Amino acid sequence: MTVENRRHLRLVKPLEGMWRGLSGAAPCRISDISWGGCFVQTVVTPPVGTETVVTVTTLPSDGRSLEIPGRVRYVEAAMGFAMEFDPLTAEQIGGLTELLGEPPTQ
Fold first, then answer.
1. Domains of the chain
2. Engineering a disulfide at 38: which of 11, 24, 33, 68 sits with its beta carbon 3.0 to 4.6 angstroms away?
3. Is the pLDDT of residue 2 over 70?
4. Is the Cα torsion angle 83, 88, 91, 96 positive or negative in sign?
5. Using CA atoms, how far apart are residues 23 and 73, in angstroms rounded to an integer?
6. Residues 6 or more apart whose Cβ sits within 8 Å of residue 41
7. What is the chain written as a DSSP string?
8. Which distant-in-sequence residues (6+ apart) come within 8 Å of 95 by Cβ?
């Protein structure tokens, strides 16, 4: 049995996206996402601690993109990386609400 360390429930649903870091940008699949972060499936992975931006390419209601900056928390070789989001803006909260429902109360 594993211990769950997440603070937020996550949506496990593949979403198409892009991620961008110091070394450039690459398409990716976001395999799960929550109010605190996401897991980015990609062949090329940045080092832990790297600042990065993930873009969910289409939101359900209108197909617009949502960019969310954050930091790489851990890397799974040949699979991808987990990132923790920076504090969210009102626009980012609105986009995540479309995906995840209402934000958690603090």
1. 10-100 (2.40.10.220)
2. 33
3. no
4. positive
5. 17
6. 28, 29, 30, 31, 79, 80
7. -PPP--SS-EEEEEEEEEEEETTEEEEEEEEEEESSEEEEE-SS-PPTT-EEEEEE---TTT---EEEEEEEEEEETTTEEEEEEPSPPHHHHHHHHHHH-SPPP-
8. 56, 59, 64, 66
Whether 4 shows a pLDDT value over 60: the answer reads: no
For the record, the structure tokens of 93 come out as 């909260």
Q: What is the pLDDT of residues 29-88, one digit of tens each?
A: 999 999 999 999 998 889 999 999 999 987 777 778 999 999 999 999 889 999 999 999
CB atoms within 10 A of CB 37: 23
